[in-house]
């Protein structure tokens, strides 16, 4: 752990901490004794080959999965120790952008964004619609409130999913493969939105990606996971000079494999 992160942890500014976390599904071990910290208000990017355990890491942070051993602390709380109601409260502070955007195809784009507000708040309909419209405008979809998800391009679906993830004003945003299936221009636009969220909303981001160009643009720090183990952790330059050949090869690749 760097001095910066250690100082952040001691001062209560550590948003996420994994301490010797392991997770398996039957005989398949996905994470092996993984430890890292994410400082509040930073973007932490998880790199690695497919099946390395990156998406499982996001689900452990959100409490969708529980670690077999070790502890996952989010905003000072041991996620696995929370009762159902407390976990639900914790999740209200966490936004999640799934790889597929995970929009409800049976309701409009605007109502997708409004869904968390209708579920978690008692705001009047007019206020919810206004807030959802404002979020769509922030991600460049101001004219799409009444459109159906099936009518959107892949990049537009990602934007809509991002607007929905931001609806409850999360302090922590989890993002799974934001560049997947997108052209380079659209991928860059999504990256710029993520940077804006960190800067202007003072949010903490944890991003899973295979796209090295994207990772370089958005990351404050990175971690490289392979076969469930944390091989390297640090800044872009530190990973570029890692002693692990696999990490170096990944960092020097075009898309990260």
What is the global morphology?
globular
Helical stretch tally: 10
SSE series: HEEEHEEHEHHHEHEHEEHH
For the largest beta-sheet, the strand count, sense and barrel status come to: 6 strands, mixed
**Poorly predicted residue ranges:** 1-12
| Fraction of helical residues | 25-40%
Lateral strand order in the biggest sheet: 6-7-8-3-9-10
Question: Residue-averaged pLDDT, rounded?
Answer: 88
Strand content: 15-25%
How would you classify the helix and strand content by structural class?
alpha/beta
The count of β-strands is 10
Radius of gyration: 18 Å
How far from one another are the termini? 27 Å
Report on this structure.
This protein has 257 residues and is an alpha/beta fold. The protein has a domain at 105-169. The protein is built from ten helices and ten strands. A six-stranded mixed beta sheet has the order 6-7-8-3-9-10, sandwiched between helices. A four-stranded antiparallel beta sheet has the order 2-1-4-5. α4 packs across α5, α4 (109-120) runs parallel beside α6 and α5 packs across α6. It is globular, with a radius of gyration of 18 Å.
């Amino acid at each position: 752990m760097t001095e910066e992160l250690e100082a952040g942890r001691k001062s209560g500014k550590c948003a996420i901490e994994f301490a010797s976390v392991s997770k398996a599904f039957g005989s398949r071990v996905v994470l092996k004794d993984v430890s890292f910290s994410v400082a509040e208000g930073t973007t932490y990017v998880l790199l690695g080959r497919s099946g390395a355990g990156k998406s499982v890491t996001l689900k452990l942070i959100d409490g969708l999965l529980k670690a077999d051993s070790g502890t996952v602390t989010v905003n000072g709380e041991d996620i696995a120790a929370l009762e159902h109601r407390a976990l639900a409260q914790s999740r209200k502070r966490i936004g999640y952008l799934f790889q597929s955007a995970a929009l409800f195809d049976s309701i409009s784009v605007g109502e997708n964004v409004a869904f968390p507000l209708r579920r978690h708040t008692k705001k009047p309909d007019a206020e919810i619609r206004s807030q959802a419209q404002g979020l769509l405008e922030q991600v460049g979809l101001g004219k799409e409130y009444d459109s159906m998800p099936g009518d959107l391009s892949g990049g537009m679906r990602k934007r809509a999913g991002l607007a929905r993830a931001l609806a409850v004003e999360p302090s922590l945003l989890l993002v799974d493969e934001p560049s997947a299936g997108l052209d380079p221009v659209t991928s860059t636009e999504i990256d710029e939105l993520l940077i804006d969220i960190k800067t202007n909303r003072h949010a903490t981001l944890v991003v899973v990606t295979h796209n090295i160009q994207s990772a370089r643009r958005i990351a404050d720090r990175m971690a490289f996971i392979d076969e469930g183990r944390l091989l390297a952790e640090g800044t872009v330059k530190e990973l570029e000079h890692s002693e692990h050949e696999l990490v170096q090869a990944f960092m020097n690749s075009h898309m990260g494999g």
